[in-house]
Amino acid sequence: MTSSPEHTSADTHAPRYLLISREGETLLNDDGTLHYLTGNDTAEPLTEEAILARSVIRPATYGTDAEKNSGAQVHVLYCEDETLAQVAADLNNPRVRASASGFRYYPVHEDPEGRAHYATALARRDYLIDMCYSAYSGEEAPLGSKGIRRTASGEMVFPRIEPAVMALVTSRDGERVLLANNRQWHPNRFALIAGFVDPGENLEEAIAREVYEETGLHALSTEYRMSDVWPFPRSLMICYRVRVDENETIIHHDGEIRAARWFTAAELREAIAISEERGNSDEDDPAKLELPGTNAVARRMIDEWLAEKP
């Protein structure tokens, strides 16, 4: 078992292996980026008994997704958490460690390809490891040759994906954004409006409903911006900008939101600067605004809006 060099192009003749534990942890370099293991054509870095499931992440040659288009496959091996810890110890490399909450704080700007690999591997984890039975009949549903689970009676069991919508709410002129504080958070933590799509809704109906339920504001227009895999546990985030009338009264109909505040670009940049200067803590600091981490698509939505403002 060997390690791949850090931050170098993959050798297409040496398979790259990504280890993912049952709890979703992996091997990380000391800068927080993915650490791949390398093998050869006849040997994998884990024994057959230690492998819970396998998957292959292939380059996105059918599109222009640069994050997955390095030209080399990544072989994902799923294992128990104890196995991952043992592999990290066996490497005996002080610059490599088993992660703890590795995906939530991934340095996406330093390693977008690794972040894409990690998200894909986590999104497939539940299906490959835990979804072994039909939710309807209770029959065992082993994986077939094409990677789809099927029961003995012929029922196909597909991966479960949970679509959720997210809104960057803007004023009519687009010069302010509305951020919300959930009652379960510290009062200084603000993020975007989000929620799961209900059965029978299309995406535009879902985003308008979520905005109304959490703020009492009516959507004047919606504009799709981006999507992202967020494997906690199996969400697909579909993100919109939603324009509202800022003069409407804010009402938190569903009780989830403690407060919602309007921010100009200048106010948001100042708040971000203060937050970065003071760092994160468990103490409530009224002078500091905590925003979603840079790995979250919510932060990408905020940063995209800020980049448009002088």
UniProtKB/TrEMBL annotation:
Pfam families: NUDIX. PROSITE patterns: NUDIX, NUDIX_BOX. The keyword NAD applies. It is an enzyme of class 3 (hydrolase). Belongs to the Nudix hydrolase family. NudC subfamily. Residues 159-290 form the Nudix hydrolase domain. It comes from Rothia mucilaginosa M508. This is NAD(+) diphosphatase. Its EC number is 3.6.1.22. Keywords: Hydrolase, Magnesium, Metal-binding, NAD. The keyword Metal-binding applies. It catalyses: a 5'-end NAD(+)-phospho-ribonucleoside in mRNA + H2O = a 5'-end phospho-adenosine-phospho-ribonucleoside in mRNA + beta-nicotinamide D-ribonucleotide + 2 H(+).
